[in-house]
Amino acid sequence: MGADCSEVTSAVRLSYILEDQERMTRARNYLAWQRRLVTRELGRRVVEVGCGLGNFTEMLLDRDMVLAVDAEPGCTARIKQRYPDRKNLLVFTCDAGSPTFAHLAAFYPDSCVCLNVLEHIYDDAGALQAMASILAPGGVIVLLVPAFQALYGPIDRNLGHHRRYSRRSLIRLAEAAELRVREVRYMNVFGFLGWWVNSHILRREAQSEGQIGAFDRYLVPVLSRLEDWVRPPFGQSLFAVLEKL
């Protein structure tokens, strides 16, 4: 008997996601930009929700404890292979709505980080509430999500994105989870233009390695510093820092 259609679709989508993450491993300047923004907001005991292949996990290993979480067994197996001897790294195969995730509260995490993952989760409100539930008051959640539904295109669909966010929609989501908004801002103004071209003119099905390489080498070093000085009114992504009340 043939495989169920939904299983085939899921397998193809996972392949797209993993290929996309592999491409992004070469975007060293962009990953460094994320690191500068994100790590300064995190505490010493961090839950990484949606660790994927571990591109960002490596940047957290100076912490006292990292709890790396992903729903895909292939991803968590890869993390264990990449970092086999890290005593401060614990890896869990689960999603944010599972009992296993709820039990992470026993490790007393002080922060969660969720980078380009929330858009993959159908019940994003429930996932954000689950992250808040494992933190003590004052704990921090750092998010990076794709911005502007008008940019949604074939790449988003192939990657399994349910949505893109606006500043207002992300603030509403945080308030529903009883989180205080410390910061929500757009980032990557040039990426906004590139994603629109890919979505609506070129109709690309996947990100181009050439585009990623050129963007990372020539634009990110300038753009990342410029946006530290002047906050753009729009961008490809939204960066948010939320605090549990």
Please provide a written account of the structure:
This protein starts with a helix and ends with a strand. By secondary structure, it is α/β, with parallel strands linked by helices. Helix 5 (124-133) links the parallel strand 4 and strand 5 (140-146). The longest helix is centred in the last third of the chain and has 21 residues, at 209-229. Helix 2 packs parallel to helix 9 (209-229). The protein has 9 helices and 7 strands. The chain has a 7-stranded mixed sheet with strand order 3-2-1-4-5-7-6, sandwiched between helices. It has one domain (5-244): Rossmann fold. The chain has helices at 5-24, 28-38, 73-82, 99-102, 124-133, 154-159, 167-176, 189-200, 209-229; strands at residues 45-49, 65-70, 89-93, 111-115, 140-146, 179-187, 237-244.
In short:
With about 240 residues, the chain is α/β, with parallel strands linked by helices. The protein is built from 9 helices and 7 strands; from the N terminus they run ααββαβαβαβααβααβ. Strand 2, helix 3 and strand 3 form a beta-alpha-beta unit.
Q: Provide the number of structural domains.
A: 1
Q: What is the overall silhouette?
A: globular
Spell the H/E element sequence. HHEEHEHEHEHHEHHE
Q: CATH class, anyone? A: Alpha Beta
